[in-house]
Amino acid sequence: MSEKPAKEKTVSEDAEEIKQILGAVSTEIPALIRSIISAVFSEDAGKSMGRAAAAFYKELKDSGMPDNVAVKMTEEYIGVFTGLGDLLKRVGQGKGKIIIGEEKAKEIGEEIEKRIKEKLAERKKAEAEEEEE
């Protein structure tokens, strides 16, 4: 009979740990995104992007690329950075959505469930070993 309350306590502890993890994730990820946005839109990042774009354009021209093609490719090159920056801004503001297919979502859900079950099994095993000692 005393085993049942111990199991309930373990489940409760697991639920509390998951709650703490999700709480940390919900505060840490937005902070991380904000710091990435700051890095992407800083003065130094702008200078670096300008240097990278100039080097990219120069390399295209040095390899014999026509002006119009080199300019277009450089614009697209810069667009990758600005597009990423825009995406990060939207996500940081809570406006961005990551769209994944139903199959991929199911796969992710199954992987999360698998890992949680593994952690729970590890914890139960450790608790059982402690009880044996």
Condensed summary:
By secondary structure, this protein is mostly helical. It has four helices and no strands.
What does this 3D model show about the protein?
- The chain has four helices and no strands.
- With 133 residues, it is mainly alpha-helical.
- Helix 2 packs antiparallel against helix 3.
- The protein folds into two domains: 81 residues, no CATH class; 34 residues.
- The N terminus is likely disordered.
As a percent range, the share of strand residues is under 5%
Order of helices and strands: HHHH
Binned, the helix content reads: over 70%
Number of helices: 4
Shape: elongated
Largest sheet: none
How many strand units? 0
Which features would summarize this protein structure in a list?
133 residues, elongated, 2 domains, 4 helices, mainly alpha, disordered N terminus
Task: Walk me through the topology.
Elements: H1 3-40, H2 43-62, H3 67-92, H4 102-132
